[in-house]
Amino acid sequence: MSEDTTKGTNKTVTITDDSTGKQATFPLVTGTDGPPVIDIRRLYAELGCFTYDPGFIATGSCESNITFIDGDKGILLHRGYPIEQLVRHCSHLEVCYLLLKGELPNQAQFDKFSSDITNHTMLHEQLHNLYRGFRRDAHPMAIMCGVAGALSAFYHDSTDINDPYQRMVASYRMIAKMPTIAGWAYKYSLGQPFMYPKNDLGYAENFLWMLFGHPCEEYLVNPVIARAMDRILILHADHEQNASTSTVRLSGSSGANPFACISAGIASLWGPAHGGANEAVLKMLGQIGNKANINEFVKKAKDPEDPFRIMGFGHRVYKNFDPRAKIMQKTCHEVLNELGVESEPLLELAMALERIALEDEYFIERKLYPNVDFYSGIIFRALGIPTTMFTVLFAVARTVGWIAQWNEMIEDPTQKIGRPRQLYTGSKRRDAAPIEERQ
Ligand code: CMC
Question: Looking at ligand 1, which residue's alpha carbon is closest to its atom 49?
Fold first, then answer.
């Protein structure tokens, strides 16, 4: 490594191609925090090779100033603020403002933002027809992908990505409408009437109202449940370049409209290795059944021949603990206490599983700890949310992260269409024969 004058760095990395003896030097760029990155954009031009990194284990895909994670220390910051403080002092809508605009709002800014968001909570009435096209037993995440993507067919006045005003309106629309889309997906599965948003309620309260209210009698949102929901939304709001956020960025890099990009993000989130893990945790705890069976399932998880994994355990970035999981576990106890649930067998089973796994050499060696999804499902269940809606809640919460990251990408002057290269291992060039000549 030697001195260099490139912005944000005074170091370089030199790579030598041993087969040709050619050398090229690349800037080592440092950010505000975290490890430096080697800027290899000129690698192919200089050395005629690409990097190979399936799963992006060692690849920074963009520059971002929204969220910082130190996986070894268990630190999560949004715009510099620790997640623990945001959960303690802010509402989810304040965190939305922070993620979108870079600073926490003062009261006047918050009042304006809150009013702007609530202006957009309704869905176009014709969307009822789209819901009715789904089977009643459709998974609500399937409905979420469809309806979020369909917004681009309804809100043409906010799909021009080159117009900052339209981008802002699209961002507000996504944040405002996702709870309504989710609430209606749930109502549709029950065969109950869709509930319209109530704009005098807070964000989490309104969401609960659309999930659990119905027209024939008064439904008062329990403030304990509303606060817990709000906290859960904050804990899931953003998480830098995870699979779904990277999907939103990659989709958006081609110039696709924001509604289509968010729909792609929802699809990625659905997978059990990502947001679908919260639903998978509950299914897994159901399969384990009781404490006596834990060892058998831990053994399965350790068997390289068996695809079974302890759901809600492990993380690509966190190699010590997931700070969100700690808050989630605490919230879980608080919610159960406040709801007067004296004993929750699933929580006891989850805690016993956590204890056994954390003392097991396999999990210690691989630095596998509970992640945010390990306890969230238990809280959702206590709040009366059905299992199939767990990942939907994650999607509602993550919408602000997706849209903030999408905006950041569009505004980045160095942004290009995302277009990875590959290591080709298929056939060399060969000739195609007509069908009658093939064996
Ligand atoms: N149970 C058992 N073994 C595991 C687990 C687990 N949950 N997670 C990782 N491992 C093992 C894995 O088999 C591998 O072992 P070996 O080195 O012997 O091959 C080693 O640990 C490293 O795992 P990896 O799959 O290479 O790690 P990754 O960074 O690619 O995957 C992960 C991260 C989250 C996908 C993975 O840990 C996992 O599948 N966990 C269960 C699903 C889950 O809880 N997902 C939610 C993630 S947090 C919220 C979110 O992102 O939405």
Answer: 274
